[in-house]
Amino acid sequence: MTDTSANGVSSPVKGNKNRLSLGKLLLEGRAFFALILIIAVFSYLSPNYFTASNFLIMASHVAIYGILAIGMLFVVLNGGIDLSVGSILALCGVVAGFFMQGVELHVFGVILYPPVWAVVVLTCALGALIGAVNGVLVAYFRVPAFVATLGVMYVARGFALLMTNGLTYNNLAGRPELGNTGFDWLGFNRLFGIPISVLVLAAIAIVAGIVLSRSSFGRWLYASGGNERAADLSGVPVKRVKVTVYTLSGMLSAVAGLVLASQLTSAGPTAGTTYELTAIAAVVIGGAALTGGRGNVRGTMLGAFVIGFLSDGLVIIGVSSYWQTVFTGAVIVLAVLLNSIQYRGRRGATK
Amino acid sequence: MSAAPGLSDVPLAKPDVREVVLAARHVAKNYGSIQALKGVNFDIHRGQVTTLFGENGAGKSTLMKVLSGIVQPSSGEIILDGKPVIFSSSTDARDRGISIIHQELSLAPNLSVRDNIFMGREIMGPTGVNYAEEERQVRGLMEELEEDIDPLTPVEELRLGQQQIVEIARALSIDSRILIMDEPTSALSATEVEVLFKVIRDLTSKGVSIVYISHHLEEALQITDHAVVLRDGAMTAYAPRAEIDLEWIVRNMVGENYDLGTPPGGYEFGDVALSVRELTVPSESGAGFNVVDRLSLDVRAGEIVCIYGLMGAGRTELLETIAGRVRASSGQIVLAGQEISHLSIGERISRGLALVPEDRQRDGLVQTMSVGENLSLASIMEFTRGIFTSKKLERALIANSIRDVTVKTDGPEAAIGSLSGGNQQKVVIGKMLATDPKVILLDEPSRGIDIGAKAEVFRILSDRAKRGQAVIFTTSEVGECLSIAHRIIIMSRGRISAEFSADVTKEKIMAASGEAVAA
């Protein structure tokens, strides 16, 4: 009896090891191969696609989604979802625009023009605060993440519309005599020939990658996303982790809002509509599990580039925007399909 | 290991085959590497009650699930009316006249009693569901069960016992030939049990066959015609009612040669490591009773204490309260002289208190992480320098743990799900031992692992006690109380009902827990 059971256990394990290799490589590296495929196809279809300048332009578009997607990755790793990032992006953009117009203090009868760095700090703090509200609602009041962030999504969008009465701030350049110039720098300037927004994305991605793989917080995050009860009983401060991930997501939304406002040189209350869905798509294409505990920054970045390069490529070869929507949707469904195949395979192997 | 203890008790004489309506032949069921059933033969006689006895994890519920089509056997066959059958689903089995009352309630709390009873087999009229007819039938069933439950009450508004009645009524409404009752009385009052027994006698006189499972041994003896005892997934004994008594059941359930070690000796206990004073924990459901009721307990360094009790005795709640997951409404928890009631779980762990939870899949392991990451999960701060974790220190800690609790694994990178149940349990234990606790709490550490792994787990705990750590473990298997524990505490209804030294007998333990003398 002992012998048969021992054989029964060991043989499928061995079989599995032999079946690794090509199929598994393709499955695990699917986002990477998809990206290569997209670049190859569009380079063939359009001579303008495979140029350094086009790549940099596309990368600066990806930056917005990429920054949002990293915040989203933190939330998804925790087993949650953040639908409010697009609205936080808009609200923070509008608030930044509002500061750039000058803050009138009636009591003193003066108009304050905060310098750009102060605007950036205040905006990020606002994003973090809204994110923290999400986190507290989810962690301490046990509101389902979907509902809590859906509510905050509406509230933030509403405030953005209220602040400008539905209009857009167009003058973000500041004036030299007021000492508040430089807002365009984020969206337009380049360092070593690379757009600042892309560098911001790279910096955030590197820091996030290190946090996830090398810090105790990262380990807490993977553990509480994988099994919150087990993490809790192992002494992981699961509630604090939860509040932190939503706070980070809110803060990164604010950063994305600043970059977008700077790229467009305007801050509108309807900016970033449905961006939360693009961010979720990037995370999912990058191989993260919406149930939490699985995923990494590298995959999410690939996911963001897949979506960005695909939609820009379709624009370049002149496909109608309606078809772009269809293609993007198909890619997302395909990605989720592959995710479930991958995780089902893994679960099957473990049982 | 295959020579299961007490196998010689299996009767050679075959029971009367003519009267058998449903039978299992050599039925085995594996869950991964765990063998829940090891080739069981089981007969159900027409118009009679067959009771299945066995400890938790003996395979009773699995056997019933096989017989009612909920799970498919890994091997062996089911014979209905003399012909082999394969039940494709529980609906298939139900259509052939087999229904089951589950141990866990399977009612939809939001729906009414009527809708629950006819769930999935609604009576259709010309204009949709014929609610009036359904309601009439439910009223009839409630009359038969002597319960005053309105058919339109949502199930969630009923107390647990009434919900169990609804579950029973649902099974009765099917008019089945074979009715399986898995712990039907666990939440019923004595009068309700009487009524249920009357209903069972009515049914058997009509030729319905009953399979009955209960932890209340005496209660089951009142109603049964045949007794079958399972142990570790194998049938150990079979006899008609006339030939058996309580002692026979206990002997066959527990087994004789069950060696899991002896209490470690040759040293003096140290100071009191954990002291619980007048601890009270209210029921989570807000039902107004206390799951732990003014309980006091002292455990010394180096001492091993076993807590025995039935399901719902409050063992899990006691340990989870000490560990900090559940808040007590009053009382004190003192660890090595310091009050810790106000501390978080993490702070308690760093002060030297570790809990190995009962359900390792739900509370112990992170399935998305590797063996190594699971082992190091409770000690992350031990290998964190500044804000970064040190790979080198972590590897050392994991290697040490794997050696310490002897986990058989391909390496720290292996998926946690690739391990056997026993090795998974050792990972959960190893994870908590890596925090170098002063007091180790283990809730049912032997649940769902084979006898070899059990012995190893107890050896590890024994070693830890010799090193001066205090060990408290719970069990629902009497045999395990009489292994390494220096002291055996019996819990019943949130209190300590008895306390024994290591030389107590199984019968005394079972009597004190309320198992043998219930209702």
From TrEMBL, chain A:
The chain crosses the membrane at residues 25-45, 57-76, 88-111, 117-140, 152-172, 192-212, 243-261, 273-292, 299-317, 323-341. CDD domains: TM_PBP1_transp_AraH_like (cd06579). GO terms for cellular component: plasma membrane. Keywords: Cell inner membrane, Cell membrane, Membrane, Transmembrane, Transmembrane helix, Transport. Pfam families: BPD_transp_2. InterPro entries: ABC_transp_permease. One of its GO terms (molecular function) is transmembrane transporter activity. It is a multi-pass membrane protein. It is found in: Cell membrane. It comes from the Bacteria. The keyword Ubl conjugation does not apply. This is ABC transporter permease.
TrEMBL record, chain B:
InterPro entries: AAA+_ATPase, ABC_carbohydrate_import_ATPase, ABC_transporter-like_ATP-bd, ABC_transporter-like_CS, P-loop_NTPase. It is found in: Cell membrane. It comes from the Bacteria. Belongs to the ABC transporter superfamily. Coiled coil: none annotated. It is a peripheral membrane protein. GO terms for cellular component: plasma membrane. Residues 22-257, 276-518 form the ABC transporter domain. GO terms for molecular function: ATP binding; ATP hydrolysis activity. Keywords: ATP-binding, Cell membrane, Membrane, Nucleotide-binding, Repeat, Sugar transport, Translocase, Transport. This is Sugar ABC transporter ATP-binding protein. PROSITE patterns: ABC_TRANSPORTER_1 (PS00211), ABC_TRANSPORTER_2 (PS50893).
